[in-house]
Amino acid sequence: QVQLVESGGGLVQAGGSLRLSCAASLGTFSRYTMGWFRQAPGKEREFVAAISWSGGGSTNYADSVKGRFTISRDNAKNTVYLQMSSLKSEDTAVYYCAAKQFGTTMLSNDYVYWGQGTQVTVSS
User: Fold this and answer.
1) Based on the number of CB atoms within 10 Å of its own CB, is 13 exposed (0-12), middle (13-18) or buried (19 or more)?
2) Is there a contact between 86 and 68 (Cβ–Cβ < 8 Å)?
3) Which of 4, 87, 103, 120 could in theory staple to 115 by disulfide, Cβ–Cβ 3.0 to 4.6 A?
4) CA 73 to CA 40: how far, in whole Å?
5) CB-count exposure of residue 72 (10 Å: 0-12, 13-18, 19+)
6) 27-58 pLDDT, tens per residue?
């Protein structure tokens, strides 16, 4: 059974840091591109970051998080991480982990598997 389980969300002050984790039960984890998305109240889900399944794990970031967030993966642990620093109030959202086989994309519709989400709240 495919399962993605996020953890690490919480309440943090502006300027602080959080690290999100996503533990995956996907079979061959290394074949999957992993992405992070977020959805704030009243807004559409948006792309945050993605890390490819191969090629050394190339990464893509939304412009709004470049230089502040870092996505990484540990294939031995079937886990993807999102290190978030210099957090801003506008980063407040439910963060979702997602997976798709092979090619990297920023389009949420291309991802097949999704976690349940973890809330991140940044207080100003």
Assistant:
1) exposed
2) yes
3) 4
4) 25
5) middle
6) 888 889 999 999 999 999 999 999 998 766 89
* Residue 98 · residue 82 · CB < 8 Å: no
List pLDDT tens digits, range 2-23. 899 999 999 999 999 999 999 9
- Taking alpha carbons only, the member of 98, 41, 34, 102 closest to residue 71 is 34
With the C-alpha atoms ordered 10, 13, 14, 16, is the resulting torsion angle positive or negative? negative
Distance CA(37)–CA(82), nearest Å, equals 11
- What CA–CA distance (Å, rounded) separates 3 from 47? 20
Q: Which amino acid is at 96?
A: Y
Phi and psi, residue 29, nearest 5°: -55, -40
